[in-house]
Amino acid sequence: MSKTMIRAATVADLGQITEIYSDAVLNGTASYELEPPTLAEMQARYDNLRAGGFPYLVAADAAGTILGYAYAGPFRTRPAYRFIVEDSVYVMPSAKGRGVGLELLRALIEAVRQLGFRQLVAVIGDGSAESPSVRLHEKLGFRHCGRLQGSGYKRDRWLDTVFMQLELNGGTTLPPDADSLPEKKFRHEM
After folding, report:
1. Phi/psi of residue 69, each to 5°?
2. What is the pLDDT of residues 120-134, one digit of tens each?
3. Do 42 and 21 meet the contact criterion of CB atoms below 8 Å apart?
4. What is the per-residue pLDDT across 3-32, written as a single tens digit (0 to 9) for each?
5. Beta strands of the chain (E only): which ranges?
6. What angle do CA 181, 33, 77 make, to 5 degrees?
């Protein structure tokens, strides 16, 4: 993936991010949304994640074109879930198959690890064995941990949702790290 830079997303990137996601909603089955969100909605989602301290990354080419984006956010809202986050990775159609998703997910895993989370979960719509998203997560060490059969209906077919999980920072073998983002947020220190 030469001349591609992975960096933190900015508000200025949201127009291109919205275009990438709109294509995924309209033409793919990874997202179970049926109508693409507006730029204003995408900015609200971005602002909410960034306010929570969660990583939001983009892959940009040398000209500044956003090739893909990835972020992590809460898996569930109840406080006992605070050590687990869910990832999302989307790549523009013309950049698929060029390693953009792999580099984004690698960088996201490292960002999540540095924040002190213990589990990273992928909730993959259309989670068939041949799904590029499933293969991407397998390549980076995620293990299969569940399937909801027929959980979505899109593009005139029933879709399964696959859950995959990557253990980080000692997973469940160590007590919570008091200096981790989830613990600081829990104690209202940020």
Report:
1. -150, 160
2. 999 999 888 889 999
3. yes
4. 899 999 999 999 999 999 999 999 999 999
5. 5-8, 56-60, 66-74, 84-91, 119-125, 143-154, 157-167
6. 30
> How far apart (Å, rounded) are the C-alpha atoms in residues 71 and 56?
4
d(CA 111, CA 89): 14
Supply 6's token pair.
Answer: 């992975």
Dihedral sign computed on CA atoms, order 41, 161, 30, 120: positive
- Residue 101: closest CA among 48, 138, 130, 127: 138
Q: Is the pTM of this model over 0.85?
A: yes
For residue 28 the two structure tokens come to: 């793919």
Give CA angle at 57 (51, 59), nearest 5°: 160
Per-residue tokens: 16: 């291109």
d(CA 152, CA 169): 33
